């Protein structure tokens, strides 16, 4: 089992009554081991209350298996009907929690991604950020930030302004410390343009430009339980990093800079510590280095091109698919699930993964994915994680 060997990377899947848990473990760094888990209900056809109970039972069993020194730092619940289901979720403050309506496409009502770390201190700050401390670094997570405004441009601008102030409270800035963002957009075909405009304007005022850098991001269809919310946002930032610890990924033979088609995010970002490299791959689809959608109407071909793009970004970060900790896959059309799931099962068996219903920001894109990877590094002069 993954907990019985404290070296290298391990992946395992096990089953409890009504749920499956797939876990990846990185234990090849300092004393801060890391675990990514995807927990899925296997009780299709049962009520949400029953499926939630099976997922939480599996989660609690995993907590016990990992041990008391391993704590969650971030969770995301994927729900099929947030308005009715979110009130039934446990009320918790043990870590940052994201809740989004993106239906799991295996026919169930709930899935859960949890990121665990060992030997860290976690606290809920007064300003809504969740602080995770270890060594000389403080990591700030935020889940499901939202502003009830039907105008996506206004909501996005307000969310980023508020986030900038929260980071300022902690001696950080978006430009210097933010590593990753996620924007979940209700009716993305209509509202994504407003997200782009609001983000572009806010980034410009925070010295995030094509001449400096942007932030790794996913902008995807998703719904909040409150129907007034058009945009919700998750974020991750790190305090204590030095200039040069954060780098950006481009893979120019496969992908073009996003600013060429008017949006502001990085294809990927990695952060080097003294013992490991964290790689954050943004939402990536079937696109070429001219910014064009490739293989319109063919989800299998789009999946293969998407893999090529993500593989090129990982390669630029000196990582491979074997370094990937978890994957989140977004599909526009529920009818494509069986074919896409079979492709992922064949190529990436055992990797923690969830496939959800979530339209991509261009209708022609039928599929998008994001992932996180981690690998051992040493001798770079930086403090360990």
Mean pLDDT: 94
Order of helices and strands: EEEHEHEEEEEHHEHEEEEEHEHEE
Main pleated sheet:
6 strands, mixed
* Strands, total number: 18
The number of helical segments is 7
Estimate the helix proportion, in percent. Answer: 10-25%
Query: Which strand order does the major sheet show?
Result: 1-2-3-6-4-5
Q: Please tell me what the overall shape is.
A: globular
- Radius of gyration in whole Å, from Cα? 19 Å
Estimate the strand proportion: 25-35%
Instruction: Give the end-to-end Cα distance, rounded to a whole number of Å.
Output: 24 Å
Structural class designation:
alpha+beta
Low-confidence stretches: 1-8
Oligomer: single chain
Question: How would you describe this structure to a colleague?
Answer:
This protein is of the alpha+beta class and 385 residues long. The protein is 24% helix and 34% strand. The chain contains seven helices and 18 strands. Strands 1-2-3-6-4-5 form a six-stranded mixed beta sheet, covered by helices on one side. A six-stranded mixed beta sheet has the order 7-8-9-12-10-11. It is globular and about 50 Å long. The relative contact order is 0.14.
